[in-house]
Amino acid sequence: MTAPSTDGSMTGMAAPASALEPDAAAHNAFVAGLELTGIELVKIGGERGATGAATQTRFDLTAGYLQDEHAIYCRYDAVAHITNEDGTDVGHASASVVIAARVAAGAEAACIERFGGTSGAFMAHPYLREAIASTAQRLGFPGVLLPMIKSQPDGPAEATGSGPHAQALATSED
After folding, report:
1. What distances in angstroms separate CA 142 from CA 68, 93, 119, 170, one per listed residue?
2. 3-state DSSP helix/strand/coil percent for the chain, to nearest 5?
3. In sequence order, which ranges of the chain are alpha helices (DSSP H)?
């Protein structure tokens, strides 16, 4: 799965990692057998810790999944760390989204991870982006937006990050 770094790019983060990238046919069969059952905002929060203008925002995104016999649940947690020009923390906004999908048959970890780092991330992103933006706005920090996902790697050769199969998602500030 993926996480944004302090410079706005997405880097690898702690998530279960499979030994191999999934075979394209196996991954396509896995995705074809999924039935999306829900996308839920499960946690939201924020706090203004100091007065002053916000000049910088650093985003952290973590992701992971849980699998049971008939479903997978991908959870995405985003935190916006809002600082002033001196780098002093003036507040934060956070949100968590869970994507649930019913699976037709047993799934390989590599297929779930690939889904979570690609399609799942694209599904969760708008919910996280809106929750972070509206929470920050209510705290008096207008214009805090989770960067848009611009592209993602086609395979492990393009992946960067700390894990053996971390995926990098390019982002940009709006």
Report:
1. 40, 12, 29, 24
2. 25, 40, 35
3. 24-32, 109-117, 119-138
**Residue labelled with tokens 């690939």:** 114
Spatial CA neighbour of 147 closest among 61, 46, 39? 61
Q: What CATH topology corresponds to 2-15+32-147? A: Bacterial Protein-export protein SecB (3.10.420)
Break the chain into its structural domains and give their ranges: 2-15+32-147
Q: 77-136 pLDDT, tens per residue?
A: 999 999 999 999 999 999 999 999 999 777 889 999 999 999 999 999 999 999 999 999
Q: Write the CB contacts of 24 (distance below 8 Å, at least 6 apart in sequence).
A: none
Which residues, including other chains, have CB under 8 Å from residue 130's CB and lie 6 or more apart? none
pTM listed for this prediction: 0.75
How many whole angstroms separate alpha carbon 25 and alpha carbon 111?
A: 10
| Contact between residue 42 and residue 105 where contact means Cβ atoms under 8 Å apart | no
CB-based burial of residue 174 (10 Å sphere; 0-12 exposed, 13-18 middle, 19+ buried)?
exposed
